[in-house]
């Protein structure tokens, strides 16, 4: 008889939860949703990897909705695929969405959610951010990481500051952001976004991959056109490092390292493909970062300048 009573209890619990969430939905003006959620799993059955493409497909199925709602299990989740709505979330409601959701892995792996990434918004997080900005990401610290200081490198850094190379880096981060979905945010109190109600503890997911390919924001968004960033203000549309109070504190460091690495690879080596076929840019459907499903194979040959750089670095005291 015990299994019977257990099943009966679960049925009553399901009815109670359905009534609770169903009543709440009728009272709130929620964004459109792709159908009624299933018991227990919600809309999880609709999601496939990679998530950014799955979310974009759901957005298109809802008439190109800039924001829509899902039930992932029992948690209410809003997915944003529009730059204007994301900007509203991280400017007008910046403080509200400065929190992170409470996940088990952050509790057990993230030192009880006490790291800069997973900590709740408050005094502790502000102290971590301040320490990180001073001790890790400050200009003095970044400059101290460089070991080669000869004239060739100085001229290289001056060359890297030109808009042409920076435009290539910006266009690469637009088409292939390292993190296609920003780290989840959580509403600390009720608010309004795009004229929709956002209940407290709603999880916010921002599909940067979709925003960076939005034809309303970018001309010919699927094409690689670095010259688009020669226009003033175009770089402010990028969300590769997030937006608002919880934006990545390593933005400056990341941009400088990518630009430096790309400049060195172009300056110091000659590159050739191993075959005549086009490079496969299909992204792998795993992990929170976006990387190629097929590794790039290329042949490189060092230019004469490499010997000069190595000799200069070896002569440093």
UniProtKB/TrEMBL annotation:
GO-annotated cellular components: membrane
First-listed, main subcellular location of the protein, grouped into a coarse class: membrane
Topology of the protein relative to the lipid bilayer: Single-pass membrane protein
Residues that coordinate or bind heme: 248
Transmembrane segments: 6-23
Protein's name according to its UniProt entry: Cytochrome P450
PANTHER family assigned to the protein according to its UniProt record, in alphabetical order: CYTOCHROME P450 82C3-RELATED (PTHR47947), CYTOCHROME P450, FAMILY 81, SUBFAMILY D, POLYPEPTIDE 5 (PTHR47947:SF62)
InterPro entries to which the protein is assigned, alphabetical: Cyt_P450 (IPR001128), Cyt_P450_CS (IPR017972), Cyt_P450_E_grp-I (IPR002401), Cyt_P450_sf (IPR036396), Plant_Cytochrome_P450_Monoox (IPR050651)
Keyword Transmembrane: yes
The keyword Transmembrane is assigned to this record: yes
Record Pfam families: p450
Known cofactor(s): heme
Record organism: Brassica cretica (Mustard)
